[in-house]
Amino acid sequence: MNESRLNLLSSELHTSSSYIDRVLHAILNVSGLKILPSNQKICGKFNLELNSFLKDNILHPRLTGPVEFDDFPEKTSPDKMKLEIAAMTAIFDTLILLKRDPDQIITVTTEYINILYKFSRLLHQNCRAQGDIDVTFPRLGLAKMAHADGRLFEDGEALGKEVPLFTLQMDDFYDVTSGKNVSISAIDLKRDQKYEELLQKGHQAIFEKRPEKALKIFERAFDFKECAEILNLIGWCYSLIGNIEQAKSYCLKAIRKDKDYGPPYNDLGSYIMGEGNYNEALKWFELAKKARNYANREYPYINAGRVYVAKQRFEEAIIEFEQALVIAPFQEELENTIRELKIKLVKIKESQTDTIQHPIM
Questions:
Q1: Sign of the CA dihedral 47, 50, 56, 58?
Q2: If you average pLDDT over every residue of the chain, what do you get?
Q3: Which of 81, 117, 211, 272 could be cross-linked to 166 through a Cys-Cys bond (beta carbons 3.0 to 4.6 Å apart)?
Q4: In this structure, are residues 117 and 165 in contact, taking their beta carbons and an 8 Å threshold?
Q5: Each residue's pLDDT tens digit, 180-199
């Protein structure tokens, strides 16, 4: 029983650490985000809380001495934070492997995981607001998604513009293994963990602009979990290396695998839009908007807006872009696009009025 709980704990630990690693990787690979003062301040608080937690719960006072809060700078660089998290996660991995006092290990590791999720959310929000970039959310196991005020998300509830707070409760480990929920085998947990590892490596290869490498990694991940997410990522890689037909094929496979998963509808529409088949693309974007499971629901609105711009239907384009901005605000480029389209629309209407008033004889 304890082994099953610790296997679950190991999987949740890896999921949370992979999420914060993806967020920090994005910050370190997008121009300006690494040195952004707000990110460094968040990392400073993150560093303080992690080290205080480590001293209070893991390290013996004879090794660390008393906690001196003045020792921690107000700001910490994201690359330093990335290294510290990797080191601390390795400590908890070791504790789980040792299997000493499982109840205590579950207690402290759950607290550590929730600290990771707390600051992952803050940094993820900053990525969206300041860098117009996004990061893949963690896959839900025992953790739950909550609003900023602590209310849990309802089944099927759209995330909209909000970055949820992922939280884990210690009791969940006992509920699962006591039969209150469906038990998860250790083999399945290991497969999930390997899938998450490969997912992280694949995204890193994409950041490094190495789609061929990412494709191979994602194809290996598919061997561990045959889900819509990985099918869509494989299709994305094919699009990046120029094989659009394969990309479209994998989008359709992803849709057949999970009709509620939104990204393949949007991606398929994008590939069709690139081929100039605008009306067909719009149909897929509409399906993407209605998909139950879609963290970045603004994308199909943006893409539909692009279609209407290409069709010179600027009023409809503005409606789509403004809806995208409601879902995901603080996108300066999108605000500029809307402003420019409105100016263009005014000029077109003025030109049409002049033509009516002064017809060419």
A1: negative
A2: 84
A3: 117
A4: yes
A5: 444 445 556 667 878 888 89
Q: Are 143 and 9 contacting, i.e. CB atoms less than 8 angstroms apart?
A: no
C-alpha to C-alpha distance for 162 and 104, rounded to whole angstroms: 33
The two structure tokens encoding residue 193? 């963990």
Q: Options 1.25.40.10, 3.40.50.300, 3.30.43.10, 3.40.228.10; which CATH number does 227-357 get?
A: 1.25.40.10
Buried b / exposed e along 150-160 (16+ C-beta atoms within 10 A)? eeeeeeeebbe
Q: Which residue has the tokens 């409601």?
A: 326
Please return the burial class of 78, using the count of CB atoms within 10 Å of its CB with bins 0-12, 13-18 and 19+.
Answer: buried
Q: What is the pLDDT of residues 261-276, one digit of tens each?
A: 999 999 999 999 999 9
Q: Are the C-beta atoms of residues 22 and 122 closer than 8 Å to each other?
A: no
- The overall pTM is greater than 0.70: no
**Beta carbons within 10 angstroms of residue 183's beta carbon:** 12
CA distance 106 to 87: 19
Tokens 């490969």 belong to 198
Which residue do the tokens 């301040």 mark?
41
State the Cα angle at 357 between 354 and 360, rounded to 5°: 85
Residues of the chain with CATH 1.25.40.10: 227-357
- Supply the pLDDT for residue 182: 42
